[in-house]
Each structure stands twice: as structure tokens, then as C-alpha cells.
């Protein structure tokens, strides 16, 4: 990490007891056919080696979890999201972020295999959401979004008959700082704040109440198809938008109603503008994407450091996630990396982003040195800002 040690530290543990485990950081390595030129080797369930191409010795990174190429969707779900679902059913908020460059596996983790737009042939009819993803939630490849919904329904069915539950979902994208409803695509929607700036809502966003798993899966696949996909030099199906699914569970108990919300976010590609040779419109998108990922990183840093003031205002993404990020909310970041040598630079960037988040968590779990944290978020912010300046 970038925290330097300068002289003796005052140890304070009282301030963060409620924040332990606030941020869990996992890294998932995407499968690859590449046998020789690789930059990642997973060495345990919590660490990996990064090879910079032989310039220096491989460097070890450790996280809360490291998922290898053949780890199943079920395993990833059980490790990262299942514990949050229990929280949500108890009336708390929780959030999962999929972070990483385009092509690193974010959408695979969150949604599962998505039909590709391949030209149809005589023996291969055009892929549709229905043909390759028919709502069979037991599918091996089903992603976290569907598994979470599935899990919530199962818990509800086995819960006490005294409690009645309502599950509703909304699904939106943020593209170029504009919000669009993915369940009911149309013009951009506005953020509304109450007079104290506490509750933030999206005016006109559809919120669908459902009790059918199959319907939910269909809605998600259809919503994903409405996401803004723009080809860049990095990848033909590059996704330059953030997709945010929110699942709200309201439980009426004899004692009152409790509400918990789970946010599952498939973030836009984290690749840097320079590499994708973006020009004009693309470059502007890149700037927005980096701005919101930067803002998100800053919020996470500030929250993990126990900061009194957290700035959510820098991007739509962080304003929207304020509810999830503040209060008693557990957050999991799943950083995705590609193991091929040709993706070395992006993979390194992602490992470092995740490492920053993770080093803070580890510090919190052990002991916090207050004076170290005082300037850490600002330093981090400054270095990221200068990185962004270099790009544009
Ligand atoms: P991103 O959303 O980060 O741009 P994708 O999820 O679209 O990346 O993944 C890129 C490709 O790799 C897709 O064809 C996807 O199906 C495949 N892929 C990614 N992760 C996995 C995985 N864990 N297992 C199998 N295939 C994967
Ligand atoms: Mg994607």
C-alpha cells in the first residue's frame, strides 16, 4: 500500500467496531485458453501472483477472496453475495460492485452468459434472450443478480407465515452521467433529493413488484439488451455504461414493516482512455466513466477510513448509491481481471485499485492508526486526479 510509516502511531480501536468487514474485496480471474503468455497465477483462495512480463520478480497480491478460473458461479455467489442477502432480509442495505476492464468478466459474474449478436445461419437461429436463457435459474452459469433474487424468494417461502413480503426490482443504467430506465427504456430520468439531501430517488423509474422468478429473469435479460453498447478499439461489445439493479424487500411482521435493499452493480469498463484510442464522443464517455469510478473509489476510501464527511456528490453513481454506502451497509467489490499477457496493464490497474480498497479493510480489521488515515483519502484522490489529467 501507499501508507508510509513515519514514527510511532497512536492506536485507536474504539471508532471502527461497527465498520469491521464493511468492505470485502474479491478478485475474480476470467478463464482463458492462453497457455503461455499469462500475467496472473492464483496461488491460494486469497492471493495471486502478478507477472509484469519478466521485468521484475512476480508480485503477490492478497485480498479477502481470490476466485480462480474454474471457480463456479455458485461458489462466487455463496462467498460474496449470500451473506448480504441475509442482511437485506433483516432490513439492511447491501451492495455488490463488479469492477474491471471491458472483457474481464463483470457481466458474466453479475448476469451470466448473455446472448451474442451473431449472424444467424440455417442451423443456428438468431439468439434471443429466451432461447439461451429461459428462466432456468438452476443453470450452472446463472449470475449473481438472478441467484440473489432466487435466494430471496426461497428465504421468503420458508419464512414464518405471520410475515408477508414484497419484492420489487428496478434496473437502470448510467451512461454519460445520464440515467435511463432499463425496465422501461425512454428518455433520461432525473435524480430527486428530499430537502435535506438524505433520500435520493430517480423520478419516474419503474419499480416492478413480482413474485415470479421467471419473470424477473426475463426482465433482467431484456433490460441488459437495452444497455448502451458502443464499440471501442478495446472490444467490439464494450459496455460504457454502469448497470444498477436494486432489489427491495419489504417484510410486514407483527411488529412493523422492515425494508432492506440490495444493490448489484455491473460497472462500466475501467480501462483508460489512452489505450482504447478513444476520440471525441468516446473520450467524453471515458471521462465520465473514470469520474464516477474515481468518485466511487473515494467514497469507499472515506467510508472505510471512518471519515466524518463523505462526498457523494461527485457523480450520479455515488449519489445513487449513497443509501447503500452509508449507514449500516455491507459492501463487496468483485474486481475482475484477464489473465492473458496482452491485458497486463489493465489487469495491473485493477489489482491496484482493489488493493487500495483491500489494504484499508485489513487495517480496519486489525488496528487503525488514526493519523495515517487522516490524509490517506486525499493522497489517493490527488494521485488519481493526476492520472486522469494525464489521460485527457
Ligand atoms: P465484461 O462485462 O467485463 O466486459 P464479459 O462478462 O462480457 O466481460 O466477459 C467477456 C467474455 O468472457 C464473455 O464471452 C464471457 O461469457 C466470458 N467469461 C467471462 N468470465 C467468465 C467465466 N468466469 N466463465 C466463463 N466465461 C466467462
Ligand atoms: Mg459487460
From TrEMBL:
Location of the Kinesin motor domain: 22-360
Entry keyword set: ATP-binding, Coiled coil, Cytoplasm, Cytoskeleton, Microtubule, Motor protein, Nucleotide-binding
Top-rank taxon: Eukaryota
GO CC terms of this entry: microtubule
GO molecular function per UniProt: ATP binding; microtubule binding; microtubule motor activity
Signal sequence region: none
Composition bias, Polar residues: 8-17
Compartment annotation: Cytoplasm, Cytoskeleton
Binding residue positions for ATP: 100-107
Region of interest (Disordered), residue spans: 109-138
Family to which this protein belongs: Belongs to the TRAFAC class myosin-kinesin ATPase superfamily. Kinesin family.
Protein name: Kinesin motor domain-containing protein
Originating organism: Drosophila willistoni
Higher taxonomy: Eukaryota, Metazoa, Ecdysozoa, Arthropoda, Hexapoda
Residues of the full protein shown: 17 to 408 of 750
Amino acid at each position: 500500500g501507499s501508507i508510509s510509516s513515519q514514527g510511532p502511531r497512536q492506536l485507536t480501536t474504539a471508532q471502527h467496531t461497527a465498520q469491521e468487514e464493511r468492505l470485502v474485496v474479491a478478485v475474480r480471474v476470467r478463464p482463458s485458453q492462453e497457455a503461455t503468455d499469462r500475467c496472473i497465477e492464483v496461488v491460494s483462495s486469497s492471493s495471486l501472483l502478478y507477472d509484469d512480463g519478466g521485468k521484475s520478480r512476480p508480485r503477490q497480491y492478497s485480498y479477502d477472496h481470490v476466485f480462480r478460473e474454474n471457480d463456479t458461479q455458485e461458489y462466487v455467489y455463496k462467498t460474496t453475495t449470500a451473506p448480504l442477502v441475509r442482511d437485506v432480509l433483516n432490513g439492511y442495505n447491501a451492495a455488490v460492485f463488479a469492477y474491471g476492464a471491458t472483457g474481464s468478466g463483470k457481466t458474466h459474474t453479475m448476469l451470466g452468459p448473455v446472448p451474442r449478436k451473431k449472424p444467424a445461419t440455417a442451423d443456428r437461429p438468431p439468439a434471443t434472450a429466451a432461447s439461451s436463457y429461459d428462466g432456468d435459474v438452476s443453470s450452472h452459469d446463472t449470475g449473481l443478480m438472478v441467484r440473489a433474487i432466487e435466494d430471496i424468494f426461497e428465504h421468503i417461502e420458508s419464512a414464518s407465515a405471520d410475515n408477508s413480503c414484497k419484492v420489487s426490482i428496478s434496473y437502470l443504467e448510467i451512461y454519460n452521467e445520464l440515467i435511463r430506465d432499463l425496465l422501461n427504456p425512454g428518455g433520461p430520468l432525473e435524480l430527486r433529493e428530499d430537502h435535506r439531501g438524505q433520500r435520493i430517488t430517480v423520478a419516474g423509474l419503474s419499480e416492478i413488484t413480482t413474485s415470479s422468478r421467471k419473470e424477473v429473469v426475463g426482465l433482467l435479460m431484456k433490460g441488459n439488451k437495452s444497455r448502451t453498447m458502443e464499440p471501442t478499439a478495446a472490444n467490439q461489445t464494450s459496455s460504457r455504461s454502469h448497470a444498477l439493479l436494486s432489489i427491495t424487500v419489504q417484510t410486514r411482521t407483527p411488529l412493523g414493516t422492515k425494508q432492506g435493499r440490495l444493490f448489484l452493480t455491473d460497472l462500466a469498463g475501467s480501462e483508460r482512455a489512452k489505450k482504447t484510442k478513444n476520440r471525441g464522443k468516446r473520450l467524453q464517455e471515458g471521462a465520465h466513466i473514470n469520474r464516477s469510478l474515481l468518485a466511487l473509489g473515494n467514497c469507499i476510501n472515506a467510508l472505510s477510513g471512518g471519515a466524518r464527511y463523505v462526498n457523494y456528490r461527485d457523480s450520479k453513481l455515488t449519489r445513487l448509491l449513497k443509501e447503500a454506502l452509508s449507514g449500516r451497509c455491507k459492501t463487496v467489490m468483485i474486481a475482475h481481471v484477464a489473465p492473458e499477457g496482452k491485458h497486463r496493464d489493465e489487469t495491473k490497474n485493477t489489482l491496484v485499485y482493489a488493493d487500495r480498497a483491500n489494504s484499508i479493510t485489513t487495517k480496519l480489521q486489525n488496528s487503525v492508526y488514526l493519523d495515517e488515515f487522516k490524509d490517506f483519502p486525499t493522497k489517493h484522490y490527488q494521485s488519481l486526479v493526476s492520472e486522469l489529467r494525464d489521460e485527457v
